[in-house]
Amino acid sequence: QVQLVESGGGLVQAGGSLSLSCSTFGSISSINVMGWYRQPPGKPREMVAYIRTGASANYADSVKGRFTISRDNAKNTVHLQMNSLQVEDTAVYYCNAELRVPGRPWNYVYWGQGTQVTVSS
Q1: Which of the four, 49, 85, 89, 102, has the lowest number of CB atoms within 10 Å?
Q2: What is the DSSP letter of 95?
Q3: What is the per-residue pLDDT across 38-80, written as a single tens digit (0 to 9) for each?
């Protein structure tokens, strides 16, 4: 079974920075897309950033210029550098991946368990 595990969440003050990481475990043939989503308290989950293999990154308007997504293709990991954090960034952040596993010709979508990011005023 493939698993995605996030790390790096925590409590920071407004204006501060935080870096999130997502590691993959299990047998993976290839990864098409990796990204980050978040769910603020009492609100639906929303896309934050994603990056397709061999392509440029995409960001939600609310985080452009402040967040940076990056991938390490050799390690099958994805990171999210968050700068100039705001109270509105408080949410559970989830790692997401669309990938293939050995012996299967179609794509699978996996989610991490989530990591809490809390920004205090």
Answers
A1: 102
A2: E
A3: 999 999 999 999 999 989 999 999 999 999 999 988 888 999 9
